[in-house]
Amino acid sequence: MNSLENAKVGDKLIMTSRWNQSVLTIEKVQKNLVIANGYKFRKSDGSLVSSDRWSITTAKIATERDLEAFRKAVLRNKMIVQCHDIIFES
Predict the structure, then answer these.
(1) Measuring CA to CA, how many Å separate 89 from each of 85, 86?
(2) pLDDT tens, position by position, for the chain (90 residues)?
(3) Is the pTM here over 0.85, yes or no?
(4) Distance set, CA 74 to CA 14, 37, 38, 80 (Å)
(5) What is the distance between the alpha carbons of residues 4 and 62, in angstroms, rounded to a whole number?
């Protein structure tokens, strides 16, 4: 289970959905919710408060290892996009 009970303002979160992953900064902590970049997450399980049940989105407190893995993934994706522009026939 992914609890946000110990979350504090200024902490980084890794938000993960079916198609995307991003880093958010906590703006506000309420009794049952954590608000980060306009998104509201439940403290009990880290799930996004939303009416959309098609895509499940969760958040967890980011460790240094998580942030480094996220940075590497972003750089890897940039390299892949740049490789699409290479014309190998010439």
Answers:
(1) 12, 9
(2) 568 988 999 999 999 988 889 999 999 999 999 999 999 999 999 999 986 777 789 999 999 999 999 999 999 999 998 888 888 777
(3) no
(4) 13, 19, 22, 10
(5) 11
